[in-house]
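Case study.
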Amino acid sequence: MSARIVHIASNTFREAVRDRVLYNLIVFALLMSGASILVGQISINIERLVVINLGLTAVSLFGVVIAIFIGIGLVSKEIEKRTLYTVLSRPVRRWEFIVGKFFGLAGTLLVNTFFMAIGVFAALLYVSHRFQKPDAWVLVALYFIILQFLIITALTLFFSSFSSPLLSAVFAFALFVIGSFAEDLRGFAGISQGVTRWLATGAAYIVPNFSALNVISSVAHSNPVPGQVILYNSAYALVYAAVAISGAVLVFEHRNLK
Amino acid sequence: MAAIEILGLEKTYSVGFWRKKPRYGLRPLHLAIEEGEVFGFLGPNGAGKTTTLKLLMGLIFPTAGSARILGMELDDPRMKAQIGFLPEQPYFYDYLTARELLEYYGQLSGVDPKQRSRKVNEVLQRVGLPDVGGVQLRKFSKGMLQRVGIAQAILHDPKVLFFDEPMSGLDPMGRREVRDLMEQLKHEGKTIFFSTHILSDAEALCDRVAIIHQGELRGVGAVVELTSSVHGRVELVWHGTTVPASLRALGAECHIIGSTVRAVLSEANQDTALEALRRERLRLISVTPVRTSLEDYFMQKLQPAGATVGGRA
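After joint prediction, the assembly is written out as follows.
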């Protein structure tokens, strides 16, 4: 990786930290502590299930919100404030800027998820008093959540490379919601006929398949995740994110900066 | 080899929603700026100066034409490592301190990590900000940001510098300091291409200037030549408030300012006028040929073809 990408990524990370993005961890910590204390009092034998479901869903939602709301400003804010002028007048290629920004935000989300994961495991320990072997699958679910973040970050960057921050947020969030029901969309395509079938099948394959990356419920029930699924999901997320980033680069390479 | 070669660079925008019409940001521009030259790009607001600089920096793309800097294409990273750019009213990452910002730009420009810290300290010193390196940029005034802008432009010791309105937002002292700094850079052999609408700055600093108006190049010339042409008129200044009637008869334009009189008349009538002053026993202070100022040239070039300015064009 070019050194310039690393510098841009670390500056993006620094910006997120100084803009107090990681403060969301405090809210998350409060949520997890409150939930584990409450769950311990109202649930019988399903404390583990509730904590994993609630914890991982919160990790996912917090991350998606951060990915979208920071992602939409990654490029547009730099253009708006003209901070990009003094970057692109240096030996920095436009694609390096986009890729650097992507890794910067991805790094921020990774660090954020790491601390949230500690919170989830702490809550799990509090309600179960000890770790069990199936708890290891929680790590796989967290890994899939990070893969979701990569896709959503790449998509947000792609949208923000040509549209306004507000529209980018709308597009990205809409795709996140539709993508979360991608399996249902595929099911619908399977039972449809004619043009509807073609359209539904096309849409099902174009939108990111977030439902395949969501194993929270399965993991909460202590079901293992097959190695093949881990492999396929990894390849799918990386290819999808790479395509979205390439799209962002393609648009940004030809964009006139106002 | 010219440091900057601009070959028919042109930028057209489409305006309107349904029926799009072309609007010229820059009409085909041809210019060559030699190495070591300080070149002023003059024009009123909205003339096309910033558009030209943005084209040269690769921030926007030309509709037609091309340009080369140090013999290299505009998207060549090797060229970009040798240029420095100060945008108009620069804005930087305000969550960074001045030192962090310069370190970051040093990294992007490929400044040797071993020398980076020393260079950052040097440029902070040079732009008069040695004590605020650790202060976040959000606490900086407009003038201080302008200085940081200059610091980031010269940090990596570039050969060619592009300044967009470098004196904008500065107080008279700041302007003087920036002007001195540009003088120093000129003595170091840097090529400087700067846009301004402050003509006194251009007159003091530039070897050559170009006038641009409504996206069109209206004239190019050496400052020395543009300001040295004698128009066959002289200015006489003497003590007192008396204006001999014979001077008025010669067609002199006379102005009484306090206890002195200033008269401008044809060079052919100079001796007659001096004789008249002697006769009246008026004490002469100076006799000076009237020269064209850069402002005269500027105003002349801004007029539509055929028009004249104040009868002195």
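Observations recorded in class. The longest helix of chain B spans residues 172-187. Residues 204 and 234 of chain B are 23 Å apart (CA to CA). We will return to this complex in the next lecture.
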